[in-house]
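Deliverable D2.4 — example input (structure tokens):
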């Protein structure tokens, strides 16, 4: 009798232990509730990404939800409207999601990644409470219809490495607090309606390698502090309202490969340092740049793209350009250039459109020069 009683007690304890282990390994009920609140504000009728969001354990089988294996707290939401995953291949289409991002997402206090990208129809604002997620490293909301302003205290996200808010309808200024994101490696705010100036102390972002701000309404001058970000490889400021000169120190940056300043109101002359630098994609087209093309090309000059079109440049095409190691695409059209086009590489593969609408350029591929 005692043996049977002991066995019952043992089995009971094992059952309690297994039940407790199951509870521990499931997601927190509060995290599950927050996810369902978040889900309730969104509508996705074609792919069915939310069809798996059922059952008690949101850490197991919920599409796009990932959890910390130790704490079983929700650590990531990854919902992309453009994907090669089987669920999209079965639907044979990209996603379209409407609704808004619920502030309930901020209840998931252990989130390190939020990717809600390329759904084309999500509107409303970015919940300001998002700045209170201390573990957030990746915030990607590209390709939606999100409007409003960037949260003013976004600089509180000290662990943030990626901030991608491109291709939305955001307005207002770049928050000054953004320069406190000293872990940031990727900043993409392209194709919004952002205005105001680039923060003067943006150079504090010492870890950033890409700053992409094209297609906005940004004004003011290019901050000199940008040229002190030694990791900066890609800087895109095109199609804005930026004025003033081009800092010569861009040409002294060791890893800067892309400098796109096209379609602004930039004035002054082209710094000679840009022609013999690490920059391989240089777009200065569509500005108010005057003076001559610098005669500072050399063996270090390697350009996949060199676009100087639609400015107010004068004088000849410099002879030193023949010393460049490579120039793939060259466009100096729509300026006031004059003189004979140099022969040989890179000019032997360029057509007349690269030199059209100048004052008096001549020679191949244009007409012969008058004697």
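Example output (designed residues):
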């Amino acid at each position: 009798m005692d043996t049977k009683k002991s066995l019952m007690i043992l089995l009971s304890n094992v059952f309690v232990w297994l039940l407790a282990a199951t509870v521990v390994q499931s997601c927190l009920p509060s995290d599950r509730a927050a996810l369902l609140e978040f889900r309730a504000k969104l509508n996705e009728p074609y792919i069915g990404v939310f069809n798996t969001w059922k059952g008690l354990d949101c850490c197991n089988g919920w599409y796009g939800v990932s959890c910390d294996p130790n704490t079983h707290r929700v650590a990531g939401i990854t919902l992309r409207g453009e994907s090669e995953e089987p669920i999209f291949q079965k639907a044979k289409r990209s996603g379209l999601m409407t609704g808004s991002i619920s502030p309930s997402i901020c209840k998931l206090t252990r989130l390190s990644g939020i990717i809600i990208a390329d759904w084309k129809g999500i509107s409303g604002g970015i919940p300001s409470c998002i700045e209170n997620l201390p573990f957030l490293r990746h915030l990607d909301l590209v390709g939606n219809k999100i409007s409003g302003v960037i949260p003013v205290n976004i600089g509180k996200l000290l662990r943030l490495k990626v901030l991608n808010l491109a291709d939305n309808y955001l307005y207002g200024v770049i928050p000054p607090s953004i320069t406190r994101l000293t872990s940031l490696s990727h900043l993409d705010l392209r194709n919004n309606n952002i205005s105001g100036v680039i923060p003067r102390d943006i150079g504090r972002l010492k870890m950033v390698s890409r700053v992409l701000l094209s297609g906005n309404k940004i004004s003011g001058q290019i901050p000199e502090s940008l040229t002190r970000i030694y990791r900066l490889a890609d800087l895109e400021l095109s199609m804005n309202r930026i004025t003033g000169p081009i800092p010569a120190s861009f040409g002294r940056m060791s890893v800067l490969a892309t400098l796109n300043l096209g379609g602004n109101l930039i004035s002054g002359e082209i710094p000679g340092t840009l022609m013999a630098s690490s920059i391989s994609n240089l777009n200065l087209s569509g500005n108010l740049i005057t003076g001559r093309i610098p005669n500072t090309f050399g063996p270090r000059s390697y350009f996949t793209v060199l676009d100087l079109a639609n400015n107010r440049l004068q004088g000849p095409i410099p002879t030193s350009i023949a010393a460049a190691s490579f120039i793939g695409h060259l466009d100096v059209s729509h300026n006031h250039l004059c003189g004979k086009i140099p022969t040989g590489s890179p000019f032997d593969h360029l057509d007349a459109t690269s030199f059209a609408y100048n004052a008096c350029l001549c020679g191949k591929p244009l007409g012969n020069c008058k004697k």
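The first helix runs from residue 2 to 25.
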